[in-house]
Design a protein that fits this description.
It is a multi-pass membrane protein. The protein contains 14 helices and two strands, in the order ααααααααααααααββ. The protein is mostly helical.
């Protein structure tokens, strides 16, 4: 398969957007991701206001991501067997109906915590199919040549939504409440369905459907386990998902209990993380080569910066660190996603990506309640430090294991009076 491997000029950083279908999908995705982020921020804050408990916010996160933990691998089977475009049209239609229901409950003043829990769980069931389908559908939109660039652009779009959505959600929460955030997300789901219907189906680079047979789940797992580039990337994603990706739970506590900045501040904190992540995603479009060492190093850096955020005493230093960890966050996510996809054969990619998404989202089902409990017992600062220190330590251990296995050593030398660090054979 031909892929872009050389250093590319800045003018080519968004080369995948020259593909008509991907350009159309991306434009609608910016709006859709903004709506998704709005709903998540509004949902978490609504639960905090209704219950007064950070742990309850953690339970909400768990309800939304537990289905992925339980059924994620089956989602991969569905993705490999059916049309990705039709699957996305179905999942987005259901998500729109659920957002509408939540909007009606919130706007009529009848919403209760258990309503949010139940809807979050059903949204999680939809995500079991929706998320891995999105991952694999990118290949059908652009083909193998532009796949790596398209993955980075897709991550940029997700974080651009994370930049816009929390800011709008914070304003809406202060001005009119959570209900309108849910209503807007319902409208963005309808836009996504309409856009999918407008794609030029003849231009899609379709992958052959995988026929039903026994042992397909085991086949996908065995394939991932015997490829180090997939196995260690997934391990790193799993640890960061459980600890570091529970950031919204911790930020809710910081906004409510540490700095006392309320809903607007909570939206701002999430926007700062997304601003850094958007920067990281744009930088990742320049990357032409991804190695396993890149994934491990970026995961360790992300964890270390998140631990540092827990040591920040004031809002200024805390805000700057949030932006920095956001950059590391997306440099890791795009590297891991690219490496796993590019290391997988097309016929099994749906199952491999469902495993990736399972640990990425399913880990938050464990991490949400866990970090909520840590925050309530020992405070937001300890929660933030733990959420970063554990992944940083994990990256260090994986790095040592890989270095010993491949006879590598760390080399540090001065280059124009600046230290130059490299990994070299012993």
């Amino acid at each position: 398969m031909p892929v872009i491997t050389g250093r590319i000029p800045w003018s080519e950083s968004l080369s995948s957007l020259r593909v008509h279908n991907f350009r159309l999908f991306t434009l609608s995705n910016i709006v859709a991701m903004s709506g998704t982020w709005m709903q998540r921020i509004a949902q978490d804050w609504l639960v905090l206001q209704l219950s007064g408990s950070v742990a309850a916010v953690g339970v909400t996160v768990a309800m939304q991501f537990t289905p992925m933990l339980l059924f994620g691998l089956y989602g991969g089977l569905i993705v490999d067997r059916y049309s990705k475009r039709m699957l996305l049209m179905m999942t987005q239609s259901i998500a729109g109906v659920l957002a509408t229901l939540l909007a009606v409950l919130a706007l009529t003043g009848t919403v209760q915590v258990w309503h949010v829990y139940a809807i979050a769980f059903v949204v999680g069931l939809v995500t079991v199919v929706d998320n891995p389908t999105r991952q694999v559908f990118v290949n059908e939109l652009v083909g193998p040549r532009n796949l790596r660039n398209a993955i980075s652009v897709n991550s940029s779009v997700f974080q651009l939504g994370g930049l816009i959505g929390p800011a709008i959600a914070g304003a809406l929460l202060v001005a009119v409440g959570a209900g309108w955030a849910f209503a807007i997300n319902a409208a963005t789901c309808a836009l996504t369905v309409a856009t999918l219907g407008m794609l030029r189906t003849a231009s899609l680079v379709r992958s052959a459907a995988v026929p039903r047979s026994k042992g397909q789940l085991r086949q996908g797992l065995a394939y991932a386990l015997r490829k180090p580039t997939i196995l260690w990337s997934v391990v790193m994603v799993a640890v960061l998902s459980v600890f570091a990706l529970s950031m919204p739970v911790i930020l809710a506590a910081y906004a409510n209990d540490v700095f006392g900045v309320g809903a607007a501040g909570y939206g701002l904190f999430n926007t700062l993380v997304a601003a850094g992540a958007f920067t990281g995603a744009v930088l990742s479009t320049r990357r032409t080569r991804v190695r396993l060492r890149t994934v491990v190093a970026m995961g360790g850096l992300w964890g270390a910066l998140q631990a540092v955020a827990g040591l920040m005493p004031g809002e200024g230093g805390f805000a700057v660190t949030l932006v920095a960890l956001g950059v590391a966050n997306l440099l890791f996510i795009t590297a891991a996603n690219s490496l796993v996809q590019m290391s997988s054969n097309l016929g099994i990619r749906g199952r491999v990506m469902s495993l990736y998404v399972l640990v990425l989202l399913g880990g938050q089902a464990i991490g949400g309640p866990l970090m909520g409990w840590i925050v309530e017992r020992w405070g937001p600062h300890i929660g933030m430090i733990v959420s970063g220190a554990v992944p940083a330590l994990t990256a260090l251990v994986i790095g040592v294991v890989l270095a010993r296995r491949h006879q590598l050593a760390l080399s540090v030398r001065l280059d124009r009076r600046l230290p130059r660090v490299a990994i070299v054979p012993r």
